[in-house]
Write the structure tokens for this entry.
Amino acid sequence: MPLHRDDAGIPTLTERAEPALAPAAGAAGDPFPVLTEQVSAAPRPAPEPVAPPPDASVLAARLQAEVEALMQQALADAVEQIQARMDAELPAIVARVMQGTRRG
């Protein structure tokens, strides 16, 4: 039996076999928009202006101040540690000196 082009039982490539399931092109909520349509994008916030870098002399002065403050704190911490160690070892030092010294 020869097939005829106008046979209603055979869908062609330009027709959908299930027209009830075919959404309208570009319908709202369509997860697959037609490629010729533009998808609206959320507006991007304006970029914050970038401040110009400070002068090199200002950077050098601030850096020197930060380093000096750090050195002063490190020196204060070192002095505290030396004093604590001396206070802890002083009784043993006095005891050794007393044992090694003769009376009279």
In short: The first helix runs from residue 56 to 100. DSSP finds one helix and no strands in the chain.
